Amino acid sequence: MAAAWTPSFTPGDPAPWFTLPTPATDLFHFSTSVGRYMLLAFLPPSGSERDAAVAAFQSRRYLFDDERLAAFLVVHDAESIARAQNHVPGMRWFFDADGTVSRLYGALEADGTEHPFWLLLDPAHRTIWAGALDQTQELVAELDRLPSVDDYAGVELCAPVLIVPRVLEPGLCRELIDLYDAKGGTPSGVMRDLDGRTVGVLDDFKRRRDVLIDDPALRERLLGRISRRIAPEIEKAYQFKVTRLERYLVARYDADEGGYFRPHRDNETFGTLHRKFAVSINLNAEEFEGGDLRFPEFGQRTYRPPTGGAVVFACGLQHEATPVTRGRRYAFLPFLYDEAGHQIREANIGKLAAPSG
Predict the structure, then answer these.
(1) Per residue in 331-351, pLDDT tens?
(2) Shared-domain flag, residues 227 and 293
């Protein structure tokens, strides 16, 4: 007698990231949903098996608030895709029309055999529990015992970031603020890949204004500080040798505009793939409230360098700038990379497109 099928995921296994359409968007990046518990359900077409599973899910529907816990139901048959509607908060659908993601996760074999199952993930998208679709009692028990998001690892977590004080001296910080105020900032967009090209888009994902520094002498002074005071720390901590700096940019997050930058990663497009480390240097940390960095995969803790100090982190970490609630936050925000990254940037330069509004 053949053994019963079981999911290949066991506690601690990472869940592969993917992009799929949903009822709300043509392309949703699953990687953006970290920072909360996530339930994935790979469902079969309509029928009694699916009805029983969805009923078990609905019995704990009140737990799915999007802050602590959310769910995506994955379907690949045309009828389910046509009928599916999101129910926010907490319940959304992925449309896997060609079965690519279902096969990636082992829910669909090449010959069409289906293995519907539940996959419960922690806020870093690592497996807590996996079970066949009929294991509804086990699922409910797992949902009921989930601790708070901040306690998901059993210990306090710190994001793998560097705090480097005294990168820019106070006088240079003030010089950059004065430069910004003299020029006045322009609205800052986000980079997205659309139709095989990276474009700058202005939308409500970020509310910030930027000034690019074009003075060669000032750029040289800033490069010297980064080279002497940050690059050696990166090499010591991460065994990575920085050789290049991208963009000399002063940004302002203004409480009057509710300045913020929602959770994102800095290297997910053709035009940003070369970036290895992001640097966030506060120029006036004592003059604003809010405006701190948060890394959702590592809890709700926030990070705030002192004036002239930097938070340095890998561009692959999801992060956000929380809303500024009082005053104005000024920051110097370069990216760092190496010669291998330079080759990637050169190879992708043809995929950059002009910004769109």
Answers:
(1) 999 999 999 999 999 999 888
(2) yes
Looking from the CA of 237 toward its CB, the CA atoms found within 13 Å total: 15
Q: Of the candidates 258, 8, 215, 16, which has an alpha carbon nearest to the alpha carbon of residue 126?
A: 16
Domain that holds residue 79: 19-151
In whole angstroms, what separates CA 16 from the centre of its chain? 14
Under 8 Å between Cβ of 295 and 159: yes
How does pLDDT run across 250-298, given as a tens digit for each residue? 999 999 988 999 999 999 899 999 999 999 999 999 999 999 999 999 9
- Single out the residue in 118, 151, 184 at which a domain terminates: 151
Where a domain ends, among 129, 151, 173?
151
- At 136, list the tokens: 């509804």
Q: pTM surpassing 0.85?
A: yes
CB 158 within 8 A of CB 314: no
Residues 6+ apart with CB under 8 A from 277: 234, 238, 240, 242, 312, 313, 314, 315, 335, 336, 337
For position 197, which CATH number holds? 2.60.120.620
* Token pair listed for 112: 């069409």
